[in-house]
Write a structure and sequence with these properties.
By secondary structure, the protein is of the alpha/beta class. It has two domains: 146 residues, serine acetyltransferase, domain 1 (Orthogonal Bundle), CATH 1.10.3130; 101 residues, UDP N-Acetylglucosamine Acyltransferase, domain 1, CATH 2.160.10.10. Helices cover 41% and strands 11% of the residues. The strands form three sheets. A five-stranded parallel beta sheet has the order 1-4-7-10-13.
Length: 292
């Protein structure tokens, strides 16, 4: 770039644009959660939860201490974004963040028990899985589920923003978008996973299988902020299988236990238990080779 005067003029123009008082005109907001630190927390949590798959010289207690320090700092930053805590001092927010961090870490054994069942579901449900070790090391579905389960615990503890940052990082890595507010049961199976969307108020039971491209979404968002805290996403009961690119929409939509939803199906109404729903293609045909 050989025109420093032009660059200086552009910099002055953009500097002036920051004087408009809009939400995006914040600058030097050092109190906000840091994306790089959130990635570090996820890495540390995986090193704690799957310690045998992340060998290094650091012992487990040291990993936990390191994770606790970073997580507490990020929770404190996130709590500043809660309007209900606007009058709290930095010291008070720090103390609250520390308590939430301890509560979260104390839940990790329960989270590990859930993730062990998820590994089992992935291994038993995918004939291509060479071993459970391979599932832990290579499967993007397990990575996304793991991050979701960490983030969901933080949601339950009332931590704002940070859980969504965590699952959005997993989304960017895997193409699997799970809102941390969703409720997901045991033995959750995601195969391939790319393009899966699971909305905030989705409820998923036990032993559910979901394939790539599935959307569990809202029927309509035209009411915008008026839909906050309302059930907008479907309920998927136990033992349901949803094949690729199916869309199931609406807060009143319930997929009954044991049902199978075929690929490319678009559903906005409930189906009873043990129902098979598939998309009929009248244009499909099979041509066999002609005999000589």
């Amino acid at each position: 770039m050989n025109d420093p005067k032009r660059l200086a003029a552009i910099a002055s123009l953009i500097e002036a644009d920051y004087g408009n008082g809009r939400e995006i005109d914040k600058r030097n907001e050092t109190g906000l959660p840091v994306r790089r630190a959130v990635k570090s927390v996820i890495r540390d949590l995986n090193r704690i939860v799957y310690a045998g798959y992340c060998p290094d010289a650091e012992e487990l207690p040291a990993r936990i201490a390191s994770c606790a320090e970073e997580l507490s700092a990020q929770i404190a930053r996130a709590l500043r974004l809660d309007p209900a805590l606007a009058d709290r001092s930095d010291a008070a927010l720090g103390a609250l963040a520390e308590e939430k961090t301890f509560a979260f870490l104390e839940r990790l054994t329960a989270v590990r028990a859930l993730l062990d069942k998820d590994v089992e579901a992935l291994f038993e449900g995918d004939p291509a899985a060479e071993s459970k070790d391979a599932v832990v090391i290579t499967y993007p579905g397990l990575f996304a589920i793991s991050v979701y389960r960490y983030a969901h615990e933080l949601v339950l503890l009332g931590v704002p923003v940070l859980p969504r940052m965590m699952t959005e990082y997993a989304h960017s890595k895997t193409g699997i978008d799970i809102n941390p507010g969703a409720k997901i049961g045991e033995y959750f199976f995601i195969d391939h996973g790319t393009g899966i969307v699971i909305g905030e108020t989705t409820e998923i039971g036990d032993h559910v299988k979901i394939y790539q491209g599935v959307t569990l979404g809202a029927l309509s968002t035209r009411d915008g902020r008026g839909l906050v805290h309302k059930k907008r996403h479907p309920t998927i009961e136990d033992d349901v299988t949803i094949y690729s690119n199916a869309s199931i929409l609406g807060g009143e939509t319930v997929i009954g236990k044991g049902s199978v939803i075929g690929g490319n199906v678009f559903l906005t109404a409930s189906v009873p238990p043990n129902t098979k729903v598939y998309r009929r293609s009248d244009n499909a045909r099979l041509e066999l080779p002609k005999e000589d």
